[in-house]
Amino acid sequence: MRTNNIIFSWSIRLFIPLMLLLVSSQLNAQNSMEATNKLDAGQQYMAGISALTAVGNIDSLTVQLNNGLDAGLTINEIKETLVHLYAYAGFPRSLNGLTAFMQVVEDRKKAGKQDVEGRNASLLPADTNMLELGTEVQTKLVGQPVSGGVMAFAPAIDRYLKEHLFGAVFASDVLTYQQRELVTVSALAAMTGVEPQLQSHFSIGMNTGLTKSQLEGILDIIEKNISKAQADKGRAVLSKITVKN
């Protein structure tokens, strides 16, 4: 009887640590998964910067620009974000955003803040064919070649999209494709009347690795910085997307 008690006692001593280790491992795995499904601080401010630039709210944008730099975004990452936005929000909004950012950088320098400049874009080979490059990038992002429809109706817009946007703009590796889609989705979600494009870029964003939770996080930022009504429009569009992760 005593032997059985000893064996039982040792079994309990071994069982409890093993259970604690198992629970700890499960919690760590869950926390890791939750972390990857949420926007980090840099992504949040990049989304806010994009949304506010797209709607032209310069006062709030100035706050977001400062916060983004404080959160670790580099000067060149923010510059590239604002340049990228011209393709979706137009040159006036992009130029206004860049002008505001130029003032923010100047003011921070005067205040003694040392922001990281960040890397410059890699140089492309001199013989790069932008139309071929852009077609390849667009096909990769969308998941299939893009043709027909409005592209056939207006071939010029097809060429501009492939040669300039997906070619020259996307060729800059200051931002990753995923970051560019985060910027694009944030801008489109903030704007009215572009639901078809937003739906397309929700899908493209997922193709770059953005999760549904991260896209929902972008819409939370839209609610905070633009309006709940606008965020809800985006949520209605997102509900139509087949989840791929």
From TrEMBL:
GO terms for molecular function: peroxiredoxin activity. It comes from the Bacteria. The keyword Cell membrane does not apply. Residues 34-100, 155-221 form the Carboxymuconolactone decarboxylase-like domain. Transmembrane segments: none annotated. Residues 1-29 form the signal peptide. This is 4-carboxymuconolactone decarboxylase. It comes from Sphingobacterium thalpophilum.
